[in-house]
């Protein structure tokens, strides 16, 4: 309610301030799950990926993101 009360003077009444408030309230759980998903990856997997010659960007996109996706998607369902 506090976010909605803060948004009403700037955005007026209607659907727009409600959407802004809901978006602001939905962001923290998604960010927390994303952080936990990346943090729970086994360090041995990351070491094996770098040992195979993958660059940091490749490790992020091909290993870390794919392993963290199930935990990230828990909040998005």
Secondary structure tally: strands: 0
Class from secondary-structure proportions: mainly alpha
Q: What form results from the Cα inertia axes?
A: elongated
The biggest sheet, with number of strands, parallel, antiparallel or mixed sense and barrel status, is: none
Q: Which percent band covers the strand fraction?
A: under 5%
Q: What is the H-and-E element order?
A: HHHH
Taking all Cα atoms into account, the compactness measure Rg is: 19 Å
- Share of helix, binned: over 70%
Low-confidence stretches: none
The average pLDDT value, as a whole number, equals 89
SS summary, helix count: 4
N-to-C terminal Cα separation, in Å?
24 Å
Written account of the structure:
By secondary structure, the protein is mainly alpha-helical. The protein has helices at 2-11, 15-39, 43-51, 56-76. The longest helix has 25 residues, at 15-39. It is elongated and about 55 Å long. The two termini are 24 Å apart.
Topology:
Elements: H1 2-11, H2 15-39, H3 43-51, H4 56-76
Question: Main attributes?
Answer:
single chain; 4 helices; mainly alpha; 84% helix; 77 residues
Summarize the structure.
The protein is mainly α and 77 residues long.
């Amino acid at each position: 309610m506090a976010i909605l009360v803060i948004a009403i003077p700037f955005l007026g009444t209607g659907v727009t301030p409600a959407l802004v408030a809901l978006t602001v309230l939905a962001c923290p759980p998604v960010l927390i799950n994303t952080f936990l998903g990346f943090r729970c990856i086994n360090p041995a997997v990351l070491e094996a990926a770098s040992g195979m010659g993958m660059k940091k960007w490749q490790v992020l996109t091909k290993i870390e993101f794919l392993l963290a996706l199930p935990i990230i998607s828990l909040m998005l369902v």
